[in-house]
Amino acid sequence: MTKIGAVINKNTGTLPPQQKTDRIEEIKEHLLARISADHLAIVSGDQIRQEVERLQKRGIEMLVVGGGDGTVSTAANILSNTGILLVVLPLGTKNNFCRDLGIPLEPVEAIRLMDSMQMKEVDLGEVNGIKFINNVSLGVYPKMVAEREEITKKRGWRKWQAQIVAALIALRKMPKMKLVLEDEVYTAKRFTPLVFVGNNEYQGGFESDFHRPAINEGKLWLCMARSLGILTLLRMIYVLSVRGIQEMENLEMRSVTKLIVRSHHRKLKVAIDGEIHKLSMPLRFRSLEKALRVAVP
């Protein structure tokens, strides 16, 4: 019999408190029909890593992880190249990783993937030893996330409310970075407000099916904005929302397998799967081919 564990982030998502509690109870009921109680942990976000490591040491062969992309990313960092099968329950706001893999967005339906045992090996990206399931960004986006977290903490606003104000602040204080980027083909100097590195290539627009057709091609997708003013950047955001990223005129895009980003700064803030980290320079990216086993429909 397969040895199964489960770790659920009880605080993730944007549901009202009572609905969130009811959803967790429903998930718990379905999971306990399949796993033992001592292998189920329902915890806050800061305890996810500890619980995943605990269950890994118990010799599990399958791990159910419930949460948003940040929670899944934490688990992926531990499960990478272990052979443990990951079953993802989408409980976050966007659930981009699940969407790109076609995993059901209804948690109870996702639990049923445990029964089918269909598996897919997918890539991970890595920057300075930290693995990512979706993407890493530098510049204006990490600035916006940091502002959003500060507003949420100080004023108690909901995430989407804080996001609007944070975006306006980040654009007003839009950072410009002097960077040197080296990949397997050439070296380039850039002055840019935004660098985006995806785990495989993205297509579509932010409001029109922004997705990855595949997460197993062994590629990183580098996307850089040219040095822009605020009005040009706002026009870019509009085009990106309506027409898609391939239609952008002020973005430089290409696929690579390795990437080094250098700066005169000793450290830079980066957003890794939506979570802010301050990393020492240079930033060294690479693609980890088929590093994670995931249950899929």
TrEMBL record:
<feature type="domain" description="DAGKc">
    <location>
        <begin position="1"/>
        <end position="131"/>
    </location>
</feature>
<keyword id="KW-0808">Transferase</keyword>
<dbReference type="Pfam" id="PF00781">
    <property type="entry name" value="DAGK_cat"/>
</dbReference>
<dbReference type="GO" id="GO:0016301">
    <property type="term" value="F:kinase activity"/>
</dbReference>
<dbReference type="InterPro" id="IPR017438">
    <property type="entry name" value="ATP-NAD_kinase_N"/>
</dbReference>
<dbReference type="InterPro" id="IPR001206">
    <property type="entry name" value="Diacylglycerol_kinase_cat_dom"/>
</dbReference>
<dbReference type="InterPro" id="IPR016064">
    <property type="entry name" value="NAD/diacylglycerol_kinase_sf"/>
</dbReference>
<keyword id="KW-0418">Kinase</keyword>
<protein>
    <submittedName>
        <fullName>Diacylglycerol kinase family enzyme</fullName>
    </submittedName>
</protein>
